[in-house]
Amino acid sequence: MIKGRFAVPAGVTDWVIAVGVAALLVGTGLSGPHPAGGRELLGATLLAAGGLSLAAGRRAPLVVLAVTGLFAAGHQAAGFEVLAVSYLVAVYGAVRAGHRTAAVAASVGLLVVLHLTALVSQDGPAREVVGQARNTLEIAWLIAAFAAGEAVRQADRRADEAERTREETARHRADEERLRIARELHDSLTHQISVIKVQSEVAVHVARRRGEQVPEALLAIQEAGREASRELRATLEALRDDDTSPPHGLDHIPDLVERFRTTGLRTTLTIEGPPHAVPAAVGRTAYRIVQESLTNVARHAAATTVSVLIGYRPDALAIRVDDDGTATPYPSPTPGLGLLGMRERVTALGGRLSTEPRSAGGFTVQAELPTNGAS
């Protein structure tokens, strides 16, 4: 069964209630004791208007609460002793919308106004006048309307909380499943790629021992195997960051640079601009860019010096990694999986990435990541 297939729009329901309450008030008022002439027309109009105003209760509950209260005082002054049903419905709507304090204050004020109106507009003993005011707004009915609105509000809140909990649980299960698949994929691919890498390295080693020229295709297979293994490990590490440990970010870059110093690579880190908070995704991507760049330098560039620059700008974070390795302007190196992964991360954030040899020798990686004004 499909839920909501025959659901009535909320606006239609509101109008049906409003017209029903208006008809009930006018019918009750005209069937009981009431004045004649102009006061009769005025009172009936106020009764009808109070009921019809409920159609706007969902959009403006406080305005409807005030309007129905004024109409209740008006039709009492006109001489109609009718229970202010429209005001009771408005109280229910206001409390359901969360305006409990306003509903209590308005109700206390209306009770005072009704008694004063009765004393001014009605003749007779004070006890009878007070009784007429009570007929317009019974405290018991007022409490009942308040209690009903609060009960429905709490039920709505619990339903919303249950829906959020279901969504969070579903999201959590999806994340767990994603991580499980990633781990299984990693284990499977790592095994196969490791076999390819080992076989290619053995072949290269045997060829060199025999004094034979190593085919370029075999060297490419060997390098591709190494690169694929490293990328799989980095990917799984990134997935695990979201599950078992805090993700790496800007705060971890100094430690990363220090670790590469221990390998004999002279690495410097420069911070430009006043540091400020950036989105977590930007921090993670900045860390991965620096990590990937330093790893490439250590493995492939034959460099001795690397400089890392982190620039804080009002609306962006700039990253630049320069080395003095053996890269030359021509021809440009073929991007590996590491550079492609770097570019995908930057593009996903709406940033820009540039990777190219420097005219003075070496290689440079530059990235600009928008921070959307985070501070």
What's the gist of this structure?
With 375 residues, this protein is of the alpha+beta class. 64% of the residues lie in helices and 10% in strands.
What does this entry look like structurally?
There is one protein chain. The protein is α+β, with helices and mostly antiparallel strands. It has helices at residues 10-31, 38-52, 61-77, 85-96, 100-121, 126-136, 139-209, 216-241, 253-261, 280-301, 337-348, and strands spanning 266-272, 305-312, 316-323, 352-357, 363-370. Helix 2 runs antiparallel to helix 3 (61-77) and helix 10 (280-301) packs antiparallel against helix 11.
Mean residue pLDDT = 79
Biggest sheet details: 5 strands, mixed
- The total beta strand count reads 5
Instruction: Give the overall silhouette.
Output: elongated
Distance between termini? 50 Å
Q: Can you write the helix and strand succession as a string?
A: HHHHHHHHHEHEEHEE
Low-confidence stretches: 328-337
Class computed from helices, strands and strand pairing: alpha+beta
Give the helix proportion (percent range).
Answer: 55-70%
- What proportion strand? 5-15%
Rg (C-alpha, Å): 38 Å
Strand order of the largest sheet: 1-2-3-5-4
Number of helices: 11
List the helices and strands and how they pair.
Layout: H1 10-31, H2 38-52, H3 61-77, H4 85-96, H5 100-121, H6 126-136, H7 139-209, H8 216-241, H9 253-261, E1 266-272, H10 280-301, E2 305-312, E3 316-323, H11 337-348, E4 352-357, E5 363-370
Parallel strand pairs: 1-2
Antiparallel strand pairs: 2-3, 3-5, 4-5
Helix pairs in contact: 1-2, 2-3, 3-4, 3-5, 4-5, 4-7, 5-6, 7-8, 9-10, 10-11
